[in-house]
Amino acid sequence: DVECRSKEGFTALHEACRSGFEVGVDLLLEAKADLHTISDFRTSCLHICLQYGHENLVAKLAKLGADVHQQDNDGQTPAENAKDSDLSMKALGTYKPMVILDSLREFILKLLDRIQKESGMALHDPEAALVHPRFIRLFSFPEFMQFVDRHRYKDKRLGAIKKAELEDKEWSVKFLGDYYNAQAVLHGSCTSNALAQRFVTKVMKGAFDEEEEEKVAAEKEKAKGK
Known about the structure:
Helix content is 63%, strand content 0%. The chain is an all-alpha fold.
């Protein structure tokens, strides 16, 4: 029985992926092992391949249709687990979308910084930013592409971003549709598109939460010194 499970719910396919046994993976899949099987911890075979650095199997399973957005019990997906490794992202097929998302996050934060320098007003509240006239005007696809072009020499990864692809709505939906709300950010307006608003809110809250955590940590270190 190729679907026989251990006490933790792992199958033979999980174990073949854990050991990097590519021939075994092929044989199990030929025997109709479930590509989408998950353990009791909701761990998929992609999770395991990424954990043990078996990029050849990551690429194989991803091409066969394994779910890169399957959440485990900790809420982590293969796409998120791969984001710190260019090699893993390329094997998973998420490299270009993740580069675009990172650029979009940086673009939003740069817009906020630009507005603060111009007006002297810091925008830390997403609701305030989304109705700010200057933010609304600058939050656009042409401005994003200008940002990318200015930063290509600093970040070689930005060579992956092609304007022609991002202008093609079908390409954006195909490659960005499952990655938060990136296609809405690229093709929608923050004044009328709820998905774009949620993306901006997520980026801002994440950035300023990190900033606050750093301040608290610095204050604790300062207190220890005293």
